[in-house]
């Protein structure tokens, strides 16, 4: 009997090891697949599930959204109390382990190098109101003071300040090879109108070049391949601290309000961009990359948020703009020849960030509560569609032109060398057969 028990334990341990090996192999296969998709230019989608909020605990809400492994999300109660739906994404963050602000950025920072290489990079957060988008993108620390004197970040600092710091770290590493200029812009979309958060509202001078209405030029119609906003303020930055101060100034003017779903609900979309222009010290070749950081206002149901008056109009405007974003996603995933970027200022501003020439990372922030299960499922379904978008990932036109010029020089050099050697019959290359 004792021998049989011992044998059973050995078999149990062996089965447990097999399950671990299988899980490891499945994870490796998924990672390889995702890396292949990334090479094709697929939008990468990360999901972050926040803890139950105080209001959800007060309502005695139950958790219905769970992380399953590193790449999957399970939503329980969709279609019935005992039914569940499983979504697969590029990465999933939940709980207390591996879900800190630094953990989130660790899986994000590799994209910043692409800005230096001359690509458009966009990181944006999507989800219902109160799901934690602003916490992920901006953080709960004061953005103007979240970078400490020792070079470390406040634990609550979000992706935006960390990405800015990483960008300048990479630029400074290459200072012996290149010179660079970084220009910063910051907009909010409030009630369907674009507002420049860096423009001084004081009385303008007669010779002020930026004193005029904002007009957006789509990326496809811009000579640089980047979205251009006429009469927008663009401020230079020489360090992460410069950018933090600029963003802190602009963030003070962003529209927020308290609702039943969120004590400090963002009532506008926030779009921050850094355009990086690099010049090679030796060849004088130039390239341009762009980092766009977007904190979208959350979709909301008026019966839940309790929004009335101006807040209700804000919510309707937010939902309208997110619907326009959905139309762009639908057009890109179905391969339509016409993508309706012009349907809303939000999609116009993001026309160089989704589709076309861009590397894009989307964060989907969700509530775990059964009370929000309908909105959570909608967000995850939308994110699932986003995974099917294939961007035409290529360097910006300026980079492509520099590469083309280098190739032409190399070709001319080869032709010249071939011409010089043609006089020496003994050393001439034979004609290919």
Total strand segments: 16
Ranges where pLDDT stays below 50 over 5 or more residues in a row are 257-265, 421-433
Considering DSSP H and I runs of 4 or more, what fraction of the residues is helical? 25-40%
Characterize the biggest β-sheet: 9 strands, mixed
Q: Per DSSP, what share of the residues sits in E-state strands of 2 or more residues? A: 15-25%
Number of helices: 12
Structural class based on helices, strands and sheet pairing: alpha/beta
Radius of gyration: 25 Å
Q: Give the terminus-to-terminus CA distance.
A: 81 Å
Report the mean per-residue pLDDT as an integer.
81
Shape: globular
Search tags:
single chain, 433 residues, alpha/beta, nine-stranded mixed sheet, three-stranded antiparallel sheet, 12 helices, 16 strands, 37% helix, disordered C terminus
List the helices and strands and how they pair.
Elements: H1 2-40, E1 44-49, H2 54-58, E2 65-68, E3 72-76, E4 84-88, E5 91-93, H3 101-106, H4 112-116, E6 120-126, H5 133-137, H6 159-173, E7 178-190, E8 193-196, E9 215-217, E10 228-230, E11 235-237, H7 240-251, E12 256-257, E13 265-266, E14 269-280, E15 286-295, H8 302-305, H9 310-333, H10 345-349, E16 359-366, H11 373-386, H12 397-421
Parallel strand pairs: 1-5, 1-16, 6-15, 6-16
Antiparallel strand pairs: 2-3, 3-4, 7-8, 7-11, 7-14, 9-10, 12-13, 14-15
Helix pairs in contact: 6-7
């Amino acid at each position: 009997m004792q021998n049989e028990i011992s044998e059973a334990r050995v078999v149990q341990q062996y089965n447990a090891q097999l399950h671990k090996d299988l899980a490891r192999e499945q994870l490796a296969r998924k990672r390889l697949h995702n890396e292949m998709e990334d090479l094709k230019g697929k939008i990468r989608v990360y999901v972050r599930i926040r803890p139950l909020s105080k209001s959800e605990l007060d309502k005695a809400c139950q958790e219905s959204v769970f992380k399953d492994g590193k790449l999957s999300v399970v939503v329980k109660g969709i279609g019935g109390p005992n039914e569940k739906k499983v979504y697969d994404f590029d990465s999933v963050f939940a709980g207390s382990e591996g879900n800190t602000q630094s953990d989130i950025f660790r899986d994000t920072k590799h994209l910043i190098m692409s800005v230096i290489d001359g690509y458009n990079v966009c990181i944006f957060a999507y989800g219902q109101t109160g799901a934690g988008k602003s916490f992920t993108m901006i953080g709960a620390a004061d953005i103007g003071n979240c970078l400490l004197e020792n070079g470390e970040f406040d634990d609550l600092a979000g992706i935006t300040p960390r990405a800015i710091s990483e960008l300048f770290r990479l630029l400074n590493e290459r200072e012996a090879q290149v010179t660079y200029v970084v220009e910063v812009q910051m907009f909010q979309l409030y009630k369907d109108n674009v507002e420049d958060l860096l423009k001084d509202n004081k009385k303008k001078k007669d010779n002020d070049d930026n004193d005029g209405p904002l007009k957006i030029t789509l990326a496809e119609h811009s000579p640089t391949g980047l979205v251009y906003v006429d009469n927008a303020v663009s401020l230079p930055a020489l360090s992460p601290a410069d950018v933090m101060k600029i963003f802190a100034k602009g963030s003070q003017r962003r529209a927020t309000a308290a609702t039943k779903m969120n004590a400090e609900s963002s009532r506008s979309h926030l779009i921050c961009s850094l355009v990086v222009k690099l010049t090679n010290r030796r060849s004088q070749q130039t390239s341009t990359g762009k980092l766009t950081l977007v904190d979208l206002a959350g979709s909301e149901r008026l019966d839940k948020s309790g929004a009335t008056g101006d807040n209700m109009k804000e919510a309707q405007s937010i939902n309208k703009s997110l619907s326009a974003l959905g139309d762009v996603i639908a057009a890109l995933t179905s391969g339509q020849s016409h993508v309706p970027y012009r349907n809303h200022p939000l999609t116009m501003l993001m026309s160089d960030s989704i589709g076309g020439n861009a590397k894009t990372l989307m964060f989907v922030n969700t509530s775990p509560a059964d009370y929000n299960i309908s909105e959570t499922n909608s967000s995850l379904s939308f994110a699932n569609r986003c995974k099917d978008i294939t961007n035409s990932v290529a360097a910006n036109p300026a980079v492509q032109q520099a590469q083309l010029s280098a190739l032409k020089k190399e070709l001319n050099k080869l032709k010249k060398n071939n011409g010089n050697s043609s006089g020496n019959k003994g050393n001439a290359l034979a004609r290919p057969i």
